[in-house]
Amino acid sequence: MMEAINDDKLINNKIFSMILPITVENILQMTAGVVSMAMVGRISSIAVGAIGISNILFRIIWSIFKGISTGASVFVAQSYGADNFKKLKDVSEQAFILSIAFSIIFQQILYWKAESLLKVFNPTKDLLAYGTLYLKIISWSLPFAAVILLVSGILQGVGDAKTPMKVIGILNVVNIIFSYILIFGILGSPAMGLKGAAYAYNISYIVAALIGLYALFNEDGILRKLEGKFLLKFNAQESLQLLRFGIPTAFESSFWQFASIILTRVILTYGETAYAAYQLGLQAEAISYMPAAGFGIAASTFIGQALGSKDSELGKKYLKHLVKITIGITLVAGGVLVLFPKLIMRALTDDYEVIKIGAIYLFVMGLVQVPQNLSSLLNGGLRGAGYPNAPMINSGVGLWVIRIPLVLLSTYVLKLPLACVWIIMGIDLICRFILSIIIFKKKDIFNKF
């Protein structure tokens, strides 16, 4: 049940009880991604590229489930704030039905059409073969990934960030252990290389999904405590409401993935070494933006709960504290990217050219982490207040009006160096931050209460 909170100290405690587990969760995920990519980096740069192009397609599908999960999380938060537990149960039921149905459909599409879909990147013959192998294997993890996202969304909606942290922590530990065993052939296992990385990915998601379901439905689980049985019975009205919220969020996520297809083709024109540096740079960049990404989730949860309880002052206080903390953390984490880019890249690869290219990328991204993370926070607040279209518009303008046109102009018309692509990405993030402030002020969300 939602409790009244007005004291600043209590608000801070509430915020940290939410964001610290999310931050730890993101750091664990980041660490596992870096470690896994570092292991793959020891196979070959083509293996790194294969994972990169496969993940773009996988995440386009993943964005659909992220949209459903985010919609469920916001509706759960609002229902929890209003003490409407019937609504909470109904939303959760429909979210499970939609996630399971869509995951089965898209898993089959990815498995049978992997090679055809990857050709959109115009890869070399070897890169296409490696990518097809990897994507076909990890496609089987899609239903389990959908379940994990939904479990996290429901639990975070009621303010429980610790359980998702534990689930993701287990996922990452299992992934690292099995990646090491299966990639390099440890403990009697044959050395499988890239195939081993894919199998480890699947194993970790299966384990985490089962643990997540147990967390929701055990005797102390939130869905077990609700009145009435949890039935997977389709309700068109509830599902459509969930989709109306989830689809803009899914589009927001997919905008980046579709843009990544174009960016991948652009960066590959500079060579596979450049693309490997970009992929490793993305992993390393998570040092900065992943810890602060939790504040966007926290903003959605707390503003959603405040909306449910019709307490605008509480929502304002949450936002004020979240902004301060986000700036503080980002200045430290972003500073690491600016000051030690080469050192970070050396931890991921021993290829000199990859280090050199990736270090420039990290430096530029480090400079724009504060506006990037504040934009994420404001977008989270807009979602929590019931405005999913606003973040979608923000993302669409940044990517398709600024980033992609300028990158294409820079690369194919002006023939500028790769560093100009990194600078354009930074300009995009700054423009999105400015736009998010304008939209947030225009919506005036706290007068909605």
From TrEMBL:
<protein>
    <recommendedName>
        <fullName>Probable multidrug resistance protein NorM</fullName>
    </recommendedName>
</protein>
<keyword id="KW-0472">Membrane</keyword>
<keyword id="KW-1133">Transmembrane helix</keyword>
<feature type="transmembrane region" description="Helical">
    <location>
        <begin position="352"/>
        <end position="370"/>
    </location>
</feature>
<comment type="similarity">
    <text>Belongs to the multi antimicrobial extrusion (MATE) (TC 2.A.66.1) family.</text>
</comment>
<dbReference type="GO" id="GO:0006811">
    <property type="term" value="P:monoatomic ion transport"/>
</dbReference>
<dbReference type="Pfam" id="PF01554">
    <property type="entry name" value="MatE"/>
</dbReference>
<feature type="transmembrane region" description="Helical">
    <location>
        <begin position="133"/>
        <end position="155"/>
    </location>
</feature>
<keyword id="KW-0812">Transmembrane</keyword>
<feature type="transmembrane region" description="Helical">
    <location>
        <begin position="167"/>
        <end position="187"/>
    </location>
</feature>
<feature type="transmembrane region" description="Helical">
    <location>
        <begin position="199"/>
        <end position="217"/>
    </location>
</feature>
<feature type="transmembrane region" description="Helical">
    <location>
        <begin position="34"/>
        <end position="58"/>
    </location>
</feature>
<keyword id="KW-0050">Antiport</keyword>
<feature type="transmembrane region" description="Helical">
    <location>
        <begin position="391"/>
        <end position="410"/>
    </location>
</feature>
<dbReference type="GO" id="GO:0005886">
    <property type="term" value="C:plasma membrane"/>
</dbReference>
<keyword id="KW-0406">Ion transport</keyword>
<dbReference type="InterPro" id="IPR050222">
    <property type="entry name" value="MATE_MdtK"/>
</dbReference>
<comment type="function">
    <text>Multidrug efflux pump.</text>
</comment>
<dbReference type="InterPro" id="IPR048279">
    <property type="entry name" value="MdtK-like"/>
</dbReference>
<feature type="transmembrane region" description="Helical">
    <location>
        <begin position="416"/>
        <end position="440"/>
    </location>
</feature>
<feature type="transmembrane region" description="Helical">
    <location>
        <begin position="322"/>
        <end position="340"/>
    </location>
</feature>
<keyword id="KW-0813">Transport</keyword>
<keyword id="KW-1003">Cell membrane</keyword>
<feature type="transmembrane region" description="Helical">
    <location>
        <begin position="95"/>
        <end position="113"/>
    </location>
</feature>
<dbReference type="InterPro" id="IPR002528">
    <property type="entry name" value="MATE_fam"/>
</dbReference>
<dbReference type="GO" id="GO:0042910">
    <property type="term" value="F:xenobiotic transmembrane transporter activity"/>
</dbReference>
<dbReference type="GO" id="GO:0015297">
    <property type="term" value="F:antiporter activity"/>
</dbReference>
